[in-house]
Design brief:
Elements: H1 5-25, E1 28-30, E2 43-45, H2 50-76, H3 82-97, H4 107-126
Antiparallel strand pairs: 1-2
Helix pairs in contact: 1-2, 1-4, 2-3, 2-4, 3-4
């Protein structure tokens, strides 16, 4: 089954929004004393402001719509990469929900990691 260019176009819009959300509306904080457990320590997402939580909610809803369309295409094609797609999608959801710790110390690094995951998802979609 051929992938739908519309889904790829929607992915690009979502990618731009995810990157903007991470770099412009988010923050990271060093988890005190974490270097005693893990070399270099770990980071957590800073608490969002009210307006940023609204952006987060809408972004999450919009991303889920796009990923459901993409997942359906990949599943219908019988792709052997469905597990990889699901793992990657869950990673992006963690970045949007900001409900996990970060092993990277900057928003720019988090944005780049998100960009890489979204590129993987688009690639897997085009393999159907």
């Amino acid at each position: 089954m051929q992938y739908d260019n519309t889904i790829i176009d929607r992915y690009q819009v979502i990618e731009d929004r995810v990157i903007r959300f991470i770099t412009d509306h988010s923050g990271v904080e060093y988890m005190k004393d974490s270097e005693q457990i893990v070399e270099g320590g770990v980071f957590a997402w800073a608490k969002l402001r009210s307006v940023d939580r609204e952006i987060q909610t809408q972004l999450r809803l919009d991303y889920v719509k796009v990923l459901e369309l993409a997942r359906q295409r990949i599943e219908q094609a019988g792709s052997e990469h469905l597990i990889d797609f699901d793992r990657s999608s869950e990673t992006i959801l963690h970045y949007i929900r900001q409900d996990s710790i970060l092993w990277i110390p900057s928003l720019e690094a988090a944005a780049e990691a998100a960009r890489t995951e979204l590129a993987l998802q688009k690639f897997l979609l085009t393999q159907t």
